[in-house]
Amino acid sequence: MHGEGIKNRNNKTFHNCYLTAFITLIIIVISTSCQTTETDVTVSLPTLSSLPLSSTPKSTTAPQVVSTAPLSSLPPYTSPLTDTAESITTVVAVQEEWHKFEDSVYGFSFTYPTDWTPIELPNRVVVTYQGSSISLRIWFKQVTEDTEILRSGAPAGDLVMKGTVTFLGQGLVKNILVYQGKDKAVFYNNAGEVQVGDFVFAISLESNRFDYESIVIPEAIQEQAEQILESFELPK
Fold this sequence. Notes:
Blueprint: H1 2-44, H2 80-93, E1 98-102, E2 109-113, E3 116-121, E4 124-129, E5 134-142, E6 158-167, E7 170-179, E8 182-188, E9 194-196, E10 199-207, H3 219-230
Antiparallel strand pairs: 1-2, 3-4, 4-5, 5-10, 6-7, 7-8, 8-10, 9-10
């Protein structure tokens, strides 16, 4: 019996050792797994030292290329507005061609548009507007001449003063003959004599139509007649 007791005690001791060894092995395995997992986690996470110092995200836009050429080498800029303005200026600068008339006897001269035609007669020049019966009648003589240049009589209507016209340095009053609301004629200085130096003039703008009711002197023709008178020059 003593021998069996020893045998049982030895078996119990063996089992205890075996159990202890088994538990120790399990602890080692679990410990090894935990260390491996911790190592993996540590490796997969970025460290603080590996992060960029700047928190600003990098731009993905391509860099803009800026010319480094000097200003003097760059081509000049041409504005479309400048070209347009130059074209307009060129058109405005073109003026209508005017002709010059010079009296063959007395030597005075004046200019007139292309659509007017001067006719030289004794002691007068008649400048007729093209395609009409309206004419600028300029009577003249020298102071020493015994010649009548005043017109006689006037058609029906009322004389209305309307501004002045510069003629050889003198301001001539415009007297417009108005009948039934229409301008029938223009008498400069009331068609009276105007003395300038050694010359005497009498000037009117009239129509030679027989149908008085249909006569009208348009303002545009009146303005051109004034320009003709303002261009007068005496012989030097």
